[in-house]
User: Fold this.
Amino acid sequence: MSHPLDHPLSRRGLLGLGLAAGAALLTGCGTSSPSSASSGGRLRAAFAGGGATETLDPHLANLFNEAARAKAMFDKLADLGSDVSPQPRLAERWEPSSDLRTWRIHLREAVFHDGRAVRAADVLASYARILDPAKTFRARSSLALIDLPNSRAVDERTVEFALKRPFAEFPNVLAAFGTYVIPEGHTDFAEPVGSGPFSFTSWKPGRSVLLRRNAEYWDGAPFIDELEFLIANEETARMNALLGGQVEYAHDLSPVTARQYASRATFVKSPNSAMQAFAMKVDRPPFDDRDLREAMFLLTDRQGLVDTVLPGAGQVGNDLFGRGYEHYAAEIPQRGHDLDRARALIRKAGAEGLAVELTTAPVAAGFVEAATVFAGQLRAAGLKAEIRTGDKDTYWSDILTKGTLASFRSGAMPIETHIAQRLLTSSTTNATGWRRPEFDALYEKAVSAPRAADREGAYLEMQRTLHAEGGLLVWGFADWIVATSPRVQGVSAAPANTMDWARFDKVKLA
Amino acid sequence: MRPAGYVRRRLLLAPVQVAAVASAVFLLAEVLPGDAAVVLAGDDPDPERIARIRESLGLDRPLLTRFAAWAGGLPRGDFGESLVSGRPVLGLVLDALGPTAVLASATLAVLVPLSVWAGVAAALREGGRFDRALTAVGVALYAVPEFALAVVLIVVFGGLLPVTALGGLTPAALVLPVAVLAARPLCSLSRLVRAGMIGALASGYAAQAVRLGVPERRVRYVHVLPNAVTPAVQQLARTVDWLLGGVVIAEAVFVIPGLGTLLVDAVADRDLPVLQGLAVLFAATTVLVNLAADLVAFRLAPRA
Assistant:
C-alpha cells in the first residue's frame, strides 16, 4: 500500500519521499494575497487515500492524506522550508555542542488541544514511541542516531538530545517525516489530541475526517472554521468533485488534467517536487562500466522526456538529486544530449548492440511513459532495449536487488537524507548499488566536520562524483499539482512534504 | 421436487462452499509475490524494517498456523483484524456493506420494473416500432462499458447532479451511479423477458386459456408472465450477486466507499484478513442469492 514518500503519483497518493522543495514561491499560480479574503467556512479537500484501512496515528502516517491530516492536527519540532532546509516549528531554536554530539532544543510556548502545555517530556515520550524496537514506525530509522537513554528534559521547555555520533544535520532529523509530537501517554488515536492548527471533530474511516479551527494555535489561528478531508482515489473523481462544487481543493493531479481544465479551476504547481530518474546498478554488469554509464547520461534526451511525460509541469535534471535544495551543486554545468559521444563511449565499452532490460511499473505517474520514451532513446544509440513491467505492489522492494536498470523517483527530502538512505555502503535502500568507502568518508565529513566550509566542500565533492559516474540518471523534476476552486486563496506552491504544503491554516475562503 | 428438502440440502452445502472459497482465497493470496510487509514498507523497503513488520504482523508464522488461527475465529464471528489498520475485519466489512446495499437496492428498484415493462411491451408488439427500437438501443447500450458510460453521463449531467458521493449517498447522488449500473442488466433482462413472453404467448396453454374465455389481460399477466420471467430470474440473480459483490469501477468513479473499494484496497495492501472476510461474505451472498433465485423460479413456474 502506500507509502509516502516517494512515489507521489500512485493511486494512493504516496508522499514523495520527501518531496520537497523549493521554489515554493516561484510559481504560485493560485497564490493570491490572503489579506483580502474573508475568513470562516468549511474547506473540503479531496485526497487519494488508503480507504477503510487508513489510520489517524501521526507516527503511522504514510499516504499524502495521512500526512496532511497529521500536519493539520500535530506539529513536529522542525519542518522543511522551501529549500528543504530545516526550519524551527515547535522548537523555537536549537544549539549543538562544539563536538556536534549534544543538541539543546528550546521549545516554544504551545498547548495541546486539551489545554495541556507542550513539554520536554512530551517530546521525549513521542520519540521513545517512534524508537520502540517492537514497533515499525517509518521514522524510526530517522531517529536512530539519538541516544535516548542519555537524552533528557533540562526543564519543562528544554530538551537535550545526546547523539550516538557527531551530526551537523541533526535539525533534518527533527523535521523528518512522521516525527510528530504527541501528548505523553495519549496514544488513543480514535480521538487524536495534538498541538496543530486544527483539532479533531469526527472521523469516518475511508470517507472523511472533520477538523475544527484551533483558535489558540501558536503560529496564528487558521482563517477557516472547519477543514474536511475526503477520500477519492481516482484522479478523475477528485477533479470532477472540484468542478462539481463538492470540494474546494483537489490534491495530486496530472499535467494532462491541469492542461485540460486550465480555464475551469485554479491550478497550483510546485516545481522541483519529484525527482524523475533511472537507476543503474553500478555493482554488476553491464553498468559497472563507467564509460557505459557516461554513455547513458549522454544519450538521454532530457528535454524530450520532459516534453512527453511532464508537459508544462517539469524541468530537466542534471543527474543529481535535489535541484534548488540546500547543498545542491548548482555550479556543475547542465549535461546536454550528445548522441555521437554516447555512441563512441558505447563502442569503447564494447557494448554495441547490448541488450538492456529496463524495469518499470505503474507505481508513479509517468513511469511507464518515461520508460517507453527512454527505451526509444536507447535504441537510437544502438542498444537493444526491452521494457519489463514489474509487480506494482512490490516494485520498490524488488528493484533493490533485481535487474540492472529501473524507473526511479523520489519526493523532496534533504540532500543529506537522500545520500544517507540510498548512497552509502550501509544504506538500506541503495537501489544503484553505489558502495564506495571513499564516498562514505566524504559523507562523514559532510555531516560531522567542525567547520561549515569543510562540510560544504564535501557535499560538492560527493555531487561531482555522482554527476560524473553515479548510478542515478536524473532526467527531470516533476511539478506537484493541486487544483482549487476560485474561492480558495492562499494555497502555497510548496512541494509536498515540505512545511508549506497542505497548510490549510494559511488558506482562506472568499 | 420438494422445496423444503431441497432448501435443507442447499443450506447444509453452503458452509462447505464458503469454506472452500475462503481457503482458495487464502492460498491464492499466498502465491502473490510480496506479502503485506513488503507492500506496507512501500517506497521505504528497508529489509530490516520489512522483517520487523513481518514479525509484528505474525507473517513469519507458518501458513497453516495462520490459517488455523483465522478459521478458528470464524464460528465466534471473529474475522480477525486488518493487517494494515488493526481494526476488526467485521467492522470494516459491515461499514462498506452499507453503501453497497443502498446502491444495489436503488439499482434493483429501477432495474426490475423497468426491464419487465420493456420486455413485455416489446413482446406484445413483436416486430413493432418499440420492439425494434428496444433491440437497437439495447444492443448498443450493452456494448458500452461501465466506465465509458459513467464518463459520458458525468459530462452531460455534471452540472445538474452530484458527480461523486463525497457529499453523502443522497438520492441525487445515486442517480448517475444507478443509471450506470442498471444500463447493461436492463438490456439483457428486458431481452430475456421479451423472449420468454413471446414464447409463452405462443404456447398451447395460453391459447387454451383464451379459448376458455379467460380475459386477455388475465392470461397475459397471471398465466403467461410468471412463466415468461423465469429465465430472467437466473440472470437477475447474477446481477444481484454482482451488485453485492462490489462494483469496483462504479464505486471508484463516483467515490462510493463500498465493498468494491474495500476489495481493491485489500488486494493492493495484501491485507489477507480483510480479503478473506470479503471472500466469506461474497461466497455466502452468491450461495444465498442463487438459492433464493431457484426458489423464486420454482414458485413462479412449478415444475414436477
In short: Chain B has 13 helices and no strands. Residues 113 and 276 of chain B are 35 Å apart (CA to CA). Chain B touches chain A through 50 residues (CB under 8 Å). The domain at 89-300 of chain B is CATH 1.10.3720.10 (MetI-like fold).
